[in-house]
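Budget justification note: compute hours in this period were largely spent on complex prediction jobs such as the one shown. Inputs:
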Amino acid sequence: MTTVNTVIPAGKTVSLARRRRRPGEVAFKLALQLCLVIALAFLVGLISYAVFKGWNRLDARLWNNMPTGIVSRADRAGVQSAIFGTLWVMALVALICLPIGILSAIYLEEYADNTRWYNRILELNIQNLAGVPSIIFGILGLGMIARVIGLGFGVITGAIVLALLVLPTVIIASREALRAVPGSIRQASYALGATKWQTTWRQVLPAATPGIATGAILSLSRAIGEAAPLILLGAVTYIRFNPDGLTSRYTTLPIQIYNLLKEPQAEFQELAAAAIVLLLVILLAMNSIAIIVRNRFHKKW
Amino acid sequence: MTMTNPHPAVPIGINPDTLRTDGPPIGSHPVLELDEVTAFYGDYAAVRDVSMTIAAKQITAMIGPSGCGKSTVLRSLNRMNDLIPGARIAGRIAYHGQDLYSRDVDPIEVRRHIGMVFQKPNPFPKSIYDNIAYGPRVTGMKVDDMDALVHDALVSAALWEEVKDKLRTSALALSGGQQQRLCIARTIAVRPEVILMDEPCSALDPIATGKIEDLMFELAGDYTIVIVTHNMQQAARVSHRTAFFTADVDADGVRHGRLVEYDQTNKIFVNPSQKRTEDYITGRFG
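Corresponding output:
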């Protein structure tokens, strides 16, 4: 066996000077930055285009007035019924999908025995459902909920379908949040003689609430941006009244925008741009709330 | 002062004159009786054929190298092992004569009588007050004055003076040692008969460890304490009785824990009857 002498003799200097530039490092960093710039440039471009184009219509007319299809009244048109329709749909989606989604997540994370084949199949299918295109959900809603169950084409039908659409996302996000609660908290609770229900309800769920809330808000903001399934489900364009009940006819912002953009007149195009800005503001506000909730209640264990 | 050790079996760091000799003989006043207990994880027997009795109002220490099954035995005493999928017990563990693993025993009820303190302090992410009040609330204890109960538990755990002005602040803001005493206070609050401690000081500095050990002396007057520790000096300092576990490798190369020797602490550390025990406590075998 040979010994390697790693001791540097006295008096001999070691060179620690910076060596030549490493071109690979620099190129990689530039490539990363370029990707980010491309992504951001498109986003900023889209938003500024919408703001620029809709600037003249970003006033009280937008939320005070009802939509119209009559060209001569285009300058007085607004999207109030779409705003109220969106609020109705969003509230109903939240009411339907949050309890179901959170309770499903609790079952899968806290109660289900993952070694059982049926629980594993459930899990796999929830992952798959999250990837199903939204138009498929629209067709399902049309066939099952509007026709077979007979709920018709009111706001409740649209809300049920959107709730089903975002349910997998809510379940997955809630499970992540529940899983992030350390097992030591559950053990501490059991060791004091708490039942599983008490442990879940009083310790695990409160600790997971910030994560669940974040996931829920992000899921809801996805739901209010959806147009495709609602086209099949009776969201119509020129509605001159706000929803007044679960089976009321309705429209939502994405649907309204989609239909306005089909009109050739410049006034309608401007109105569409203004409505896009409004929708973006709502989405950004919801995402900001999600970020605030996450940071404010973030726990260090 | 002489440098020669008059008791060759005793490792450095343990003064045989301080070992406790006040415990009743083995087998008297049993609270928990283990009879041929084997603990399985799936088909694997982590620890085999453990028989011992744990006496009332005594501190019983379980020592031994890593993987010898001492924590598994401890966790089986209040059915915390039930929470691990595939864990099960063969043999009999009796609590005041009643089989803990019989069909009609509710593990929730077991844990109300046999509490547990864990290796890493694990306070709930709630206020100090709510940490203490949680146990009495969930167990449905009849409490006339919750404030008094919280006060008493914190006094018993030698934490009251340090936290009396911040009962409503988060328990997570306390130091590690304070958190561990809070966990002990929380356990005391449900008035268990037995407190199991699973290496309660291994995450703490020596000063915090000293405070917990002092607290254990105090509590031994009222509670039956079983402590698992990696620290032989700690076992020697605090316990009346010591159980020494080790792990043997069987013909298939699988490790199984077993109980080597269980006796008064002064006997284990000064005059062990088993060569294996002597080798371990003198550091010849780890």
